[in-house]
């Protein structure tokens, strides 16, 4: 099997709000959109993020009314402190301040207007 790209689809109430959040704070660009749908990506090919409006009829019936919850989208970065300072200066809501785990993971989290959690991670020697 060869995987040529990856995407994560998240069901939200306000597609434009999540789309704008990713574009503003993480450099994603909208590649496709329609009513209740937006697909965003980055030039570096990190991962595509797709937002689908909750209740959209193209979703399987058992998923239509679900809201993305309990999902954390993680981005590994080179300079966690610089990213934290940048996002804080941009007014992004820091919902978990920077911390270091015993296994060598430094991280912090921000949350978009629909409650989607983004974790920024930097690996260090434990």
From TrEMBL:
The keyword Oxidoreductase applies. Residues 2-123 form the VOC domain. It comes from the Bacteria. GO terms for molecular function: dioxygenase activity. Keywords: Dioxygenase, Oxidoreductase. Pfam families: Glyoxalase. This is Glyoxalase/bleomycin resistance protein/dioxygenase superfamily protein. It comes from Pseudosporangium ferrugineum. The lineage of its organism: Bacteria, Bacillati, Actinomycetota, Actinomycetes, Micromonosporales.
């Amino acid at each position: 099997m060869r995987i040529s790209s990856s995407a994560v689809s998240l069901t939200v109430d306000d597609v434009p709000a999540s789309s704008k959040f990713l574009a503003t704070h993480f450099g994603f660009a909208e590649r496709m959109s329609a009513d209740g749908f937006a697909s965003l990506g980055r030039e570096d090919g990190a991962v595509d993020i797709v937002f689908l409006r909750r209740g959209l009829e193209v979703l399987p019936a058992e998923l239509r009314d679900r809201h993305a919850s309990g999902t954390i989208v993680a981005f590994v970065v080179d300079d966690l402190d610089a990213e934290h300072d940048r996002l804080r200066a941009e007014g992004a809501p820091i919902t978990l301040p920077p911390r270091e785990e015993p296994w060598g993971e430094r991280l912090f989290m921000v949350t978009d207007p629909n409650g989607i959690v983004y974790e920024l991670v930097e690996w260090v020697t434990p």
